[in-house]
Amino acid sequence: MDFIIINRTVHAQSDVDDALKRDTAPLTNSQKEGASAPTFTLFTTIKPDKTEDKKVAAKNCTIQVIDIPLYRKGADVRAAFSNFGNIVKLSLVTKGLYQNAYIQFDSTAALTYFTENAWSHFIYEDAVRVLPLTLSKNEQENRQLHCFKLIGLPRNTNARDLIEYLKSINARSCFLPRNAKNYRTFNYAYVNFLTEEDIIKAAQTHHSYKSKPLYWTSPDAQCCNFCGNPNHLAKSCNRQQSKKKSFADAVKGKNQGRPRNNNGYNRTPNSNLQNGTASGGSMHDNQLVDAQLH
């Protein structure tokens, strides 16, 4: 059956009744001989509303996946979650810098797993948090109740790089926020735990990654965006100042060691060019400019 969906807002049942009775003979499709005139039909006749039982059944088989990077496609999400059961429906919704996915399965197995056993999953190297739709508001909030901030991560670190350490401290989920300007991950992550005891034990551990020490702080604590140290901010970071200075010195030394003419070999200068326009030469004497970084 061929049909066109027309979304029309009406304010009274009489308007609906009038549309259903309207004469549509002038709209007969002339390209089809003997075609009958189109008629208006309620959309609920074509696709009836779900019953409450069906809505509950669908909710019991659906999970919400958050923190999905914008570069991930529906096929990536489907591939990552297909081992939890047959996926009936999958939809992606963009929320700021990330995407949310709603995945409906044909059974409750996935929902049970992410309720009782896990809070997160991986889409390739990206960690994403998973919320069964049956979780109450209080249960969702409890998953962020015991949170610590892990800082000092090298740039572009992803959650899979930290997987062994996260397992060793009983972490339940890990979220690495991204920079809105370049979409790279920041040098810190928010790590959630099941209990207060787990978070205390994690805070007592000492860990480094790629020879950089990592630090545990409260979620709202500020830290150096350059080295990750919680004891100072980037403007006071010795490592950043040292890097700037060493780079400036390298540029300065390179310029000082460079021959002052463009040909790279010694040549006797023309006496008419040494004193500028007074002798008919250039407007300026040669100058050496030191490169400085500010």
Provide structural commentary:
It is a single chain. The protein is α+β, with helices and mostly antiparallel strands and 294 residues long. The protein folds into three domains: 33 residues, no CATH class; 85 residues, Alpha-Beta Plaits, CATH 3.30.70.330; 89 residues, RRM (RNA recognition motif) domain (Alpha-Beta Plaits), CATH 3.30.70. Helix content is 26%, strand content 20%. It contains nine helices and eleven strands. The strands form three sheets. It has a five-stranded antiparallel sheet. The chain has a four-stranded antiparallel sheet with strand order 7-8-6-11. The protein has a two-stranded antiparallel sheet with strand order 9-10. The longest helix is centred in the C-terminal third of the chain and has 19 residues. It holds the Pfam family RRM_1.
Brief digest:
Helices cover 26% and strands 20% of the residues.
Beta-strand segment tally: 11
Looking at the structure, what is the overall shape? Answer: elongated
CATH architectural category of the largest domain: 2-Layer Sandwich
Total of helices: 9
Biggest sheet character: 5 strands, antiparallel
Q: What structural class is derived from the secondary structure elements? A: alpha+beta
CATH superfamily of the largest domain: RRM (RNA recognition motif) domain
Q: In total, how many domains does the architecture comprise?
A: 3
Residue-averaged pLDDT, rounded? Answer: 79
Question: How far from one another are the termini?
Answer: 71 Å
**Percent helix among the residues?**
25-40%
H-E string: HHHEHEEHEEHEHEEHEEEH
Percentage of residues in DSSP E strands: 15-25%
Radius of gyration: 33 Å
